[in-house]
Structures are given as structure tokens and as C-alpha cells.
Amino acid sequence: MRLEEAKQIIEQTLPEKRYIHTLGVVETAIQLAQQNGVSKEQAALAAMLHDYAKYRNVSYMRTIAVELGLDDLLMYDDELLHAPIGAELVKRELGIEDASIYQAIANHTTGAPNMPLLDQVIFVADAIEPNRNYPGVEQLRQIAQKDLTQAVIATLVQTIEFLCKKQTVIFPLTIETYNAFVAEKR
Ligand code: DGI
Ligand code: FE
Ligand code: FE
Ligand code: FE
User: Fold this and answer.
1) What is the domain range of residue 34?
2) Domain count, the chain
3) How many beta carbons lie within 10 A of that of residue 55, not counting itself?
4) What is the pLDDT of residues 21-70, one digit of tens each?
5) In this structure, what CATH number is given to the domain that contains residue 21?
6) Which residue's CA lies nearest to atom 11 of ligand 1?
7) Does 15 have pLDDT greater than 80?
8) Is residue 90 exposed (0-12), middle (13-18) or buried (19+ Cβ within 10 Å)?
9) Of 59, 87, 139, 171, which has the fewest beta carbons less than 10 angstroms from its beta carbon?
């Protein structure tokens, strides 16, 4: 699928605010891809489609999670579903066959240990795109310009801090990703 075609589908699928966020992720992902030797085409398409399932019916997404054997997810926040289920629906409904794009969409909320650079680009771009505005985002943007993997760690720290302050349950994969990236750095 071409980027323009995906863009039109996303414009029709997502509410305006989420569509604007998505275009910001595409712009940032293209830039990070170019700086880190990642395919610009894959980064742009993965970014365009990353929140495809964000507003899908939760019980429908839970059914697909069971089909895919992702039962662990069901005990955690429903917000986590749109990433792995989005990857699946982009394949089923839009015919996106690229396994790298599938994986980048699936990993965009929690990250994953050993995730490839494409996934790191989408993970960080989602957090720092120009429409994001939360305390600490400017520092994340600066880190991302210097070191993508360091930006993954800083984004995880920001997310985990945010979840802890709200006393929200943290999905183990988020912590596992943090541990794997920090251990790798030492
Ligand atoms: O879809 P976006 O809003 O663009 O961003 P996202 O997909 O990165 O995150 C969606 C939500 O998921 C966000 O409000 C934080 C939450 N989240 C991320 N990691 C975890 C989490 N929620 C829980 N409960 N546990 C996590 O590990
Ligand atoms: Fe998301
Ligand atoms: Fe994110
Ligand atoms: Fe997003």
C-alpha cells in the first residue's frame, strides 16, 4: 500500500485530533529513520498506521487477542490492546504484508526487548511528535536527536514514571523492555 492511500484511510478512520497526532508521528519517524539508517518508506507507513485500532471496540479487540494467544494482555489496561491488535487488523483489513511493519505497530506502546531500529523509531516518534506536550518532552526530543536507543530508554523512564505516579498497573513487557535496553547499554 502506498503512503497516500494509507493516509486517506487513516483520515477517515481516526478522529481529527488523533489524525493530527498521526501526521506528527509520520513526520518525526521519517526524520529519525533518515538519521538512523532505517527505511524511510517503512517508517512512514508504520507511523501512518500505528494507531489504526485506537478507537476500536474493546470487546472485539479482546476477542482477537484471545485468537492470537495474547491472553496475558487481558489482565492489563485495555489501552495496551490497540498496538498488537492494530498490527493484526492492518494485515487483515488493509492487506499490509510487511512483517517489519506489523512488528513496529505491535510494539509501539510497550516496546520490546531487542526491538529493531524501525520499532525504536516508531516508539520514540510516537512519544515526541510535534503535537505532544507534556513535562519532559523537550528533553526527550533533544536526546532523540543524539542517540535513538538512549531516547528509547528515556521514553520508557518517562512512561514508567507516569504510570507509577498514577498508581496504574504496569504491563511486564514495559519493564522487561526497560531492563533489556539498560542492560544492553552497560
Ligand atoms: O496511542 P498513543 O496515545 O499515541 O500512545 P501509546 O500507544 O504509546 O500509549 C497509550 C497508552 O498506554 C498511554 O496512555 C500509556 C499507556 N501505557 C503504556 N504502557 C503501559 C500503559 N498502560 C499500562 N497500564 N501499562 C503499561 O505498561
Ligand atoms: Fe498508540
Ligand atoms: Fe508510545
Ligand atoms: Fe500514537
Assistant:
1) 3-185
2) 1
3) 12
4) 999 999 999 999 999 999 999 999 999 999 999 999 999 999 999 999 99
5) 1.10.3210.10
6) 79
7) yes
8) buried
9) 59
171 contacts 80 by C-beta, under 8 angstroms: yes
Packing angle of the helix pair 16-35, 3-13 (nearest 10 deg): 150
Exposed, middle or buried, 66 (CB in 10 Å: 0-12/13-18/19+)?
A: exposed
Q: Are 36 and 77 in contact (CB under 8 A)?
A: no
The CB of 163 under 6 Å from ligand 1? The reply is yes
Interhelix angle 40-49/82-94, rounded to 10 degrees, is 110
In the block, residue with C-alpha cell 516518534? 125
Whole-number Å distance, alpha carbon 80 to ligand 2 midpoint, is: 8
Q: Are 97 and 9 in contact (CB under 8 A)?
A: no
How far apart, in whole angstroms, are the C-alpha atoms of residue 122 and residue 133?
18
Residue 159 CB coordination number (10 Å): 19
Ligand 1 atom with the shortest distance to the CA of 169? 24
What's the rounded Cα separation, in Å, for the pair 2 and 23? 15
